[in-house]
Amino acid sequence: MSDTFPRQYARTQRLSLGEPRSFTVSPDGSRVIFIRSHSGSDAVNTLWSIDTTTGVERELLDPRTLHTNLSELTAAERKQRERAREGASGVTSYACNSAVTSAVTILGGCVVLIDLVTGNVTMPDIAPGIFDVRLSPDGDTISYLRGTSLCIASLAGNERVIATDSNAAVSWGNAEFIAAEEMGRFRGYWWSPDSQSIAACRVDVSDIDTWYIADPAHPEQQSSEHRYPAAGTSNASVSLHIISVTSTDVVPVEISGNWEYLNTVAWNNAGLIAQTQSRDQRKIDIHSIDPRTGKATIIFTDTDNAWVELVSGVPALQSDGTLVTCADRDGVRRLLVNGVAVTPTTMQVRSVVSAGENVVFIANDINTPWETDAWAFVDGTLKQLTASQGVATVTGSLNCYISRISTLDTERAHFTVHTSTNTHEIASLSETSLVQPNVRIMSVGPRGIPVAILLPRDGLNTKLPVLFDPYGGPHAQRVVASRAAYNSSQWFADQGFVVVIVDNTGTPGKGSAWERGVMRDLAQPVLDDQVEILRDLNDLEPRADTSRVGIRGWSFGGYLAALAVMRRGDLFHAGVAGAPVTDWRLYDTHYTERYLGNPSIDASAYENTCLFNDAENLQQPLLLIHGLADDNVVAAHTLQLSSALLAAGKPHEVLPLSGVTHMTPQEVVAENLLLHQLEFLQRHLC
Question: The whole model's pTM is what?
């Protein structure tokens, strides 16, 4: 059977297989540990190291040699992978000791211990069925979660439970749903640098409503219970505690202030800190914690009339105890060192990579949000580490870091190890896409709306139907200077479309006011920017036939697609809405209340953005797609919208996906989803 792009895209998990990832640098910079599969079609990740002096790569662990059942996952680990959008198998995560001489991972529910120097692999005598395994900094103790309990064991085994509760609604060391899905906190416990204590979250979900996720295709199976904190309802009750690993004595941390969310915890030789956030997200506090007494002192506070944005990698303490964080100041997100902004007002800081002797971070020029580069703050000055003219990310510190650079001119991302004396490439084994993106990026109009336009490589000038292909929501961009980001869009272009991607108000990279343009309204400002580009499209692209315009999207993009054909059916003539939010009251607290407020206090913003209220306006073809096992944007969104449309007498199509979650990892589903969308769009636009 000949390969086609939809088949390749599904088989290679969006061309991500074979790419190196999850880098860890040894303290002396001599070795880098990473994950990579054997080829672009191999979904089993293996563990590797590279010598930064010689550039020689060495495979440390191929899970297939252990003869474990790699598909054997606990329910908790399966949920953890869904939150992290992890579709591969094998070594999908690992944790090292502080010297990066040993590491642990979980395969088939069992702990695997790897000597990163010799390559020796052992399996400690620990019963299977655990998740979130880690090593103490000294490398002598293994920690992990078993059910709702936090456990430790020696390198040989001998499990000890150090925190547990008889109440099934209480867990220790776990990252609750909101933390993992919305705050970027995928863990719930942290080792002390001296390996004598663990800071652990106690999570009580008793007050959260229970939702039930069923598979109608298998009525013989029980539905799964899911504690889902919908907007306006109760969150998990989270507290922080210091646990002695020898005595198991527990010291509660006394965190002051009016807070609802524990955003981050960080513990290094400079101290233990935690960041908390109020329910309305307009205030954060950073606390310095005495692990002996549990006393917490506020050392930094930030407030904002809209919301305080969470930034990956901060807060952090430098080696000398200097606090590093980020805050919106003077219209942009700036790096703050000891409370002082050290980046210019022309730069938007996206994340902090490391904060040791120096601070390494990712940022973009405010005028070109589609390009990101790595910078360092060194001895009071800024130093640019990459000049990618594309999308650059790095891992590590200034002494040794790994760059990943993707541009519009390169077929795949390039990975390079940088030390003070050497640079070495790390091989990417990902496949070359069967489509070749033909894309141009521009800034349109007085507000500089980022737009990407893709055309088929047919060399013709004939008019073509238009396909808008946005995401459009906060925290995600579609207009980026990376060729790989446009593979699926180019495939649609090659089928005979002018594909248009618009990063509207609310998307990242263009400063504080741009991001806050969706406050109290996630619908109209977003749609207005799409409409503005559509009205300008005849001038931007002569091949665009604006009498035939479709729109497709997934998640927030699905919401936007349905919104467009319902509110502006005069301009958008067909829509494909995949896993759409349709009523924001059915989405979670942290994400939704940031933008629309708490509906238990004021539900007006929810009424104004609910698609049910636009059902009677639908005049154009609409295809709704939803995975019935989705525990993030649950299938009720699509089913309730379909009911509202039916009640209004509006024909539409619904494609339910049995056993499919929000990320649709199944190969046959991913392939045929593209084909099904194409058939729908061609049927109504061509």
Answer: 0.95
Gap between the Cα atoms of 501 and 442, Å rounded? 11
Q: Which parts of the chain have pLDDT scores under 70? A: 1, 70-71, 78, 81-87, 665
Contacts of 73 (CB under 8 A, 6+ apart): 81, 109
3-class secondary-structure state, position 638: helix
Contacts (Cβ under 8 Å, ≥6 apart) of 3: 434
Amino acid, single-letter form, for residue 106: I
10, 668 Cβ separation under 8 angstroms = yes
pLDDT of 70 reads 67
**CA–CA gap between residue 263 and residue 285 (Å, rounded):** 10
CA distance 619 to 568: 9
Per DSSP, the three-state class of 37 is strand
By DSSP bridging, strand 44-51 and strand 89-90 are parallel
Q: Which amino acid is at 278?
A: S
Helix (H, G, I), strand (E, B) or coil at 562: helix
Contacts of 105 (CB under 8 A, 6+ apart): 47, 61, 91, 93, 94, 95, 111, 112, 114, 133
Instruction: Please report the pLDDT score of residue 75 as a whole number.
Output: 73
Phi-psi region of 163 (alpha: psi -120 to 50; beta: other; left: phi over 0): beta
At residue 122, the pLDDT reads 96
Q: What is the 3-state secondary structure (H, E, C) of 306-345?
A: CCCCCCCCCCEECCCCCEEEEEEECCEEEEEECCEECCCC
Amino acid at 256: S
CB atoms within 10 A of CB 538: 12
SS3 604: helix
CA distance 593 to 109: 36
Helix axes 556-567, 524-540, angle to 10 degrees: 80
Phi-psi region of 113 (alpha: psi -120 to 50; beta: other; left: phi over 0): beta
What whole-number distance in Å separates Cα of residue 566 and Cα of residue 560? 10
pLDDT of residue 103: 98
> Are the C-beta atoms of residues 58 and 49 closer than 8 Å to each other?
yes
- DSSP strand E in 561-621: where? 574-578
**For 520, left (φ over 0), alpha (ψ -120 to 50), or beta?**
left
**Which pLDDT score is estimated for 379?**
94
What pLDDT does residue 667 have?
78
**Angle, CA of 10, 81 and 233, to the nearest 5°:** 115
Contact 474, 508 (CB under 8 A): yes
**Using the 8-state DSSP alphabet, how is residue 11 labeled?**
H
What's the count of helices (H) and strands (E) in the chain, helices before strands? 11, 44
Q: What distance in Å separates the CA atoms of residue 588 and residue 222, rounded to the nearest whole number?
A: 24
- Give the Cα separation of 272 and 416 in Å (integer): 33
CA distance 640 to 314: 39
